[in-house]
Design brief:
It is found in: Cell membrane. One of its GO terms (biological process) is peptide transport. Keywords: ATP-binding, Cell membrane, Membrane, Nucleotide-binding, Transport. It is a single chain. The protein has helices at about 50-55, 80-90, 100-105, 110-120, 125-140, 145-150, 160-170, 190-205, 215-220, 240-245, 250-255, 295-300; strands at about 5-15, 20-35, 35-40, 65-70, 75, 95, 175-180, 210-215, 225-230, 235-240, 305-310, 315. The protein is an alpha/beta fold and about 325 residues long. Bound molecules: iron/sulfur cluster.
């Protein structure tokens, strides 16, 4: 049994100003074992990216950790100084962003951007870093590595730029890889190539991965377990097959229904009515109340607890803590 690499315990993040503190992440807890892929799914504004940025110590201005712990390889990152964080980022934990065009430096040849990551985190000479970068470029499927080494980000296609990001992330063989919507900005065929590359690289390096996406279809391709987030809460977590075969939370059920069905092309696409409440709109009860077809008075006033319904399948919904209620087939 592989040991736990990352443990996030009761993490709370809020956007604070002189006038108010608005909670954005509420008691987020999860664990990730070595070599495991945890998919985090939810719409924009659910807290997926904020969760990953917390793990990387890259919270945006105004956001701060207000409670909980982030333990990576036995060390609580929340107690780290800025200098200690710099040693973790790139070396122990690396991140692949959605849009490589904004993540890469437009003025530096891509080969040197990859080599620089190695020089910052490993005791290697410039010549050795150059060799490591070329090797990594070949491993991630970048053609003509010698020539490409000297090219700039704008000279590459979107798919190639994302391969550069993956090479940069993996050159120091991090234990933890965070991929935040890495395929969202790409064409469908390139998406499939990048997903398969991430799978191969994960197998080769043994890295654990947090894979973030708004698309359950993409999540199911790569994840071992899935965590569904809504309005700053974890609302469901289960092994991927279990969650797809037996989604329990009404939000997860809605996400599943929203996946286009290619066998029934004439069927109208399903959408979950309403939208994710903004931070200022979040009230006292279950955050999904305004969009939920099963909401009752209890939901308006009490946030449900995350409870284990079957082995390793956790749900945050009063339907499962209120056993007297018969809701099967209730629409
Ligand atoms: S707690 Fe209530 S509102 Fe929230 S998801 Fe469950 S039934 Fe719907």
């Amino acid at each position: 049994m592989k040991s736990e690499l990352l443990e996030v315990r009761d993490l709370k993040v809020a956007f604070t100003s002189r006038k108010a503190s608005l909670p954005a992440l509420q008691n987020i807890s999860f664990a990730l074992r070595e070599g495991e892929v945890l998919g985090i799914v939810g719409e924009s504004g659910c807290g997926k990216s904020l969760t990953s940025l917390s793990v990387m110590g890259l919270l945006p201005k105004g956001a701060e950790v207000t409670g909980g712990e982030i333990v990576l390889a036995g060390k609580n990152l929340c107690e780290f100084s800025a200098e200690e964080w710099c040693k973790v980022r790139g070396k122990q934990a690396a991140m692949i962003f959605q849009d490589p065009m904004t993540a890469l430096n437009p003025l530096v040849p891509i080969g040197w951007q990859i080599a620089e990551t190695a020089m910052v985190h490993m005791p290697v000479s410039r010549k050795e870093a150059h060799r490591l970068a070329l090797d990594m470029m070949e491993r991630v499927g970048l053609p003509r590595a010698e020539q490409l080494f000297r090219e700039y980000p704008h000279q590459l296609s979107g798919g190639m730029r994302q391969r550069v990001m993956i090479a940069m992330a993996l050159i120091c063989t991090p234990q933890l890889l965070i991929a935040d919507e890495p395929t969202t900005a790409l064409d469908v065929t390139i998406q499939a190539q990048i997903l398969s590359l991430l799978q191969v690289m994960k197998e080769e390096t043994g890295a654990a991965m947090l894979f973030i996406s708004h698309d359950l279809g993409v999540i199911r391709e790569i994840s071992d377990r899935v965590m569904v987030m809504y309005a700053g809460y974890v609302v469901e977590e289960a092994p991927v097959k279990e969650l797809l075969n037996d989604p329990k939370h009404p939000y997860t059920v809605g996400l599943m229904k929203s996946i286009p069905d290619i066998e029934h092309k004439d069927k109208p696409l399903y959408t979950i009515p309403g939208r994710v409440p903004s931070l200022a709109e979040r009230g006292e009860g279950c955050p999904f109340t305004s969009r939920c077809p099963h909401a009752e008075s209890l939901c308006l006033t009490h946030v449900p607890s995350l409870t284990e319904q079957t082995a390793n399948h956790f749900v945050r919904c009063h339907l499962y803590t209120n056993p007297g209620r018969d809701w099967e087939g209730d629409e």
